[in-house]
Design a protein that fits this description.
The protein has about 140 residues and is of the alpha/beta class. About 30% of the residues lie in helices and about 20% in strands. It is built from 4 helices and 4 strands, in the order ββαβαααβ. Strands 1-2-3-4 form a 4-stranded mixed beta sheet. β2, α1 and β3 form a beta-alpha-beta unit. α2 crosses α3. It starts with 6 loop residues before the first strand and ends with a strand.
């Protein structure tokens, strides 16, 4: 389908699930951002890196992988309300801030054609702003 111009995979699937196999990403040429967290393993004991296979196995060109230290499978949508005092909830809110910052920059870059947003993605600002809790890889 040519209509989608960019893709966001939050806690996506790797090989061996949802019909994905070796070579599934070989021809994927459109912009994509994948996200995973250090506490977001796959099924059947797959490590968190399994969720980033779309990035690692796909071809270069407008591809990003956001890896967030401490993020779980439920961190990405920001399910916890503001104003909570529990340190675990505050940590989840920080993860959600990293998700918002990186995804908004990605959407602005590839849906709005914003060159400054694209430059921001590769500037290291997200990593620095998170005290290296976030790693953003690009190719």
């Amino acid at each position: 389908d040519p209509r989608p111009t960019a893709f966001l995979l939050m806690s996506g699937q790797g090989r061996g699930d949802s019909g994905l196999v070796d070579g599934s990403w070989d021809e994927f040429r459109r912009p994509m951002m994948a996200m995973t967290g250090s506490r977001d393993p796959g099924p059947r004991g797959a490590p968190p890196e399994w969720r980033g296979e779309s990035f690692t196995l796909g071809p270069a060109g407008d591809k990003y992988l956001v890896s967030i230290d401490g993020a779980t499978h439920y961190s990405y949508p920001g399910l916890y309300g503001e104003g909570r005092t529990d340190p675990r909830i505050r940590a989840e809110l920080l993860v959600f801030d990293y998700v918002k910052t990186s995804t908004i920059a990605f959407w602005d870059a590839y849906l709005k054609g914003d060159a400054s947003a694209k430059a921001f993605l590769t500037s290291g600002s997200i990593e620095k702003g998170s005290n290296t809790r976030v790693q953003l890889f690009s190719k």
